[in-house]
């Protein structure tokens, strides 16, 4: 199980990498739009240099030919780049062309195990089930991760599952138990994963006792 950061913020990525637990990054057009005034290519290159692990950058063309053209350009930016492609019929066609060319893809906007299965069969290196967005509409988002993990395991598919749209630390634990290979988490959730009130109280007590001990 690995942890990726779901952000395009260099500050957050720097802080996450410093902890030694972040081995990749995922971005999307909405996350890029939060970083005002930055260049897409330069930002992705800088993130790749910092993380030295898989960094997802998303295509925006609606058709397979456009997606493939954008993906070829994005793939030139760094050896660490993974091209994020939405799971549509056009996206599947693009993923299969890119797989033949050796360009790794991350099939995104996955909301069912069938979509994940098709993306894996087309040759996606990663699939990203969006857990939180399903929870938002009163569906059990984690069930898609559970089913996808079972299908991939049973049928020997080596596509990796990135549990995405993670909203809180419990999602990460559940994704790990379900067999997701990776959870991509907002920086805030990474920080929440570290926190425990008993850890804080324990430190306070140790420091108070230590102060007594040294007089
Ligand atoms: O990177 C894609 C995914 O994690 C988006 O999350 O919170 O916008 O549903 P969210």
Main attributes of the structure:
215 residues, alpha/beta, TIM Barrel, 8-stranded parallel barrel, 8 strands, globular, binds SN-glycerol-3-phosphate
| Number of E-state strands | 8
Cα Rg: 19 Å
Q: Helix content range of the residues, please? A: 40-55%
Strand order of the largest sheet: 1-2-3-4-5-6-7-8
How would you classify the helix and strand content by structural class? alpha/beta
How many strands, which pairing sense, and closed or not: the largest β-sheet?
8 strands, parallel, barrel
Named at the architecture level, the CATH assignment is Alpha-Beta Barrel
CATH class wording: Alpha Beta
List the helices and strands and how they pair.
Elements lengths: L1 E5 L3 H9 L3 E5 L2 H5 L6 H12 L3 E4 L5 H12 L5 E6 L2 H12 L4 E6 L2 H10 L3 E4 L1 H6 L4 H14 L5 E4 L5 H10 L3 E4 L1 H8 L2 H18 L1
Parallel strand pairs: 1-2, 1-8, 2-3, 3-4, 4-5, 5-6, 6-7, 7-8
The structure holds SN-glycerol-3-phosphate.
3D structure, described in words:
The chain is α/β, with parallel strands linked by helices and 215 residues long. It starts with a strand and ends with a helix. The protein contains 11 helices and 8 strands. The chain is globular, with a radius of gyration of 19 Å. α8 (141-154) runs parallel beside α9 (169-178). Helix content is 54%, strand content 18%. It has one domain (2-214): TIM Barrel, CATH 3.20.20.70. Bound molecules: SN-glycerol-3-phosphate. Residues 6, 26, 28, 130, 132-133, 164-165, 184 line the site of SN-glycerol-3-phosphate.
